[in-house]
Amino acid sequence: MKHFPLKLGFLKTMFSKQAPYVHAVDGVSFKIFRGEIFGLVGESGCGKTTTGRLLLRLIEPTAGEIFFNGMDVTSITSEREMRTLRRKMQIIFQDPYESLSPRMSIFDIIAEPLRIQKVEEKEAALRERVIEALQDLDMTPPEEYIYRFPHELSGGQRQRIAIARAFVLKPEFMVADEPVSMLDASIRTEVIKLLLGLIEKIHSSFLYITHDIALARYMCNRVAVMYLGKIVETGSTEKVILKPLHPYTEALIAAVPVPDPTARRIRVVIKGEVPSAINIPPGCRFNTRCPYAWDTCRKEEPPLVEIEKDRYVACHKYKA
Amino acid sequence: MELLSVKNLRMYYRIMRGYVKAVDDVTFEVNKQDSLGLAGESGCGKTSAALAVISLLPWNAKVVGGKILFEGEDVVKMSDSEIRSKIRWKKISMIFQGAMNALHPTYTIGRQITEAILTHEDVTKEEALERAGKLLETVGLEPERMNRYPHELSGGMKQRVVTAMALACNPDLVIADEPTTALDVIVQAQVLNVMKELQQRLKLSWILITHDLSMITETCTKLAIMYAGKIVEYGDLRYIYKEPLHPYTERLLAAFPSIAGEKTEMLSIPGFPPDLLNPPPGCRFHPRCPYAKEICMKEEPTILDANSKGHYVACHLHQ
Questions:
Q1: ipTM exceeding cut-off 0.90 for this assembly
Q2: Which of A67, A213, A215, A314 is the most exposed place for a label (fewest CB within 10 A)?
């Protein structure tokens, strides 16, 4: 069982003479078990992308630890050790138009991790691996794609290449940051299915970051909801979605449009927008928009407590 | 009389290798207070059709056939100055795809909205400013925000600003092209609510272009599904949802993960949309269709009223 208990700290950026902090990720702890697909759900600015990048140390944490297979990733200082670790951890980015080098052929893009990690060096072996990767993503016949360049492919096709590149090293752990949000709704399903197939094939553990809670339901075993740098609720996906505890989770679910004109769901859309991560509201961060907020909410920050087995929530409505 | 009647519209793009048949024999209607959802994948021609309606074609695009009748007059036959003075922005306006990112970064939003008003109407600057303030209120923003710059606004607010700009000259028809892409789900819901409210209050007609069918359910009464430059299904939204006739529509509707009730299976559509330079013969959807028969590969199906209730479909299964 591998897990990731991590406390990621504040991230700071400097603004002119003052030094306010952008509390991007403000004390976040969770575990991901081997073979699990764990969802991190929230809107823009909640810190989910930052969390994903922190796990792979693409950004340095200000405080906290990240344990991967029992080893603290944050304490590694040598480049070589980090590179060995990176072979087991990969990432898929959101924007298929930005994450592929326009000057590399599809073959080179997918072969690059193999070359960097010196997994294969002979052209013939590389070619075999690249073709296998393309077939796994239903880009057939693969020979038609290997010498093309990203600009010749559509968004959906590019994202498949990005996924192929991430899986080619058969990593133990992967982070996907909104991998389908920039694709058409009809294309998403196909790409998601391919992704699920690949995860099963190599038995990797997965962190799926998204703002689409409906998709998280489809993809993830367990899910954590983030708001303004903190986790507000976690649990098994079915439980969180069918019986949300935190008012923000409720709001996220209520905001999902349903493609059924006969479903008379009363969509209560909460007002306002997410406050700035520089000036975090006192007390519970969500109190400015929460329909249930009362006095305590404006003064005290609720801790994340376990109210039943594997079910955590940070809200004054609930006691441990 | 219909407000807008598009008949057999053909709009092609000329490129070095030939013609990209982006809009290839498209027919639909929008009546007063109608809200038509124009849905389909990227590249199916929906934005191109909208650009043809408002006559804002790129230099290499041309309407090669068909009519665009607005209040009975054919826009295709009008001169550009006529369209600019009579139709564009005053009768038909558009919220372009990614408009919120196209706001001029060094002009205040008040200045940008008044520019829209002053370009098309003969009013004083003070009048235009007053109207701009009222427009911001209409979309749920405080008029004081007029003095802000685009970078000071969030995505949801910017989308409201471009909506306000589209309403600047009190049009009869607004075309919104992917108005909520790139917005978070809660902000999306807020923007859609604003649009619904506007439609009721101002008695507008809309054409909502999107690849996301779930958004159309919330806001539209009619639906046209486009695929590879053609309309494959068209009619009252409720009938199409209850009984989707075209295999593509069926798959599109099933491509959404369910948030309420039981976890359902998501159906996907294998393959990729065709190349519009050389579309496949016969029905353009046949390479991806689970029910394709021999006739589908040879003959293009015509769009017909399937059950005399105004539910049109272009599919050999229903002819």
A1: no
A2: A67
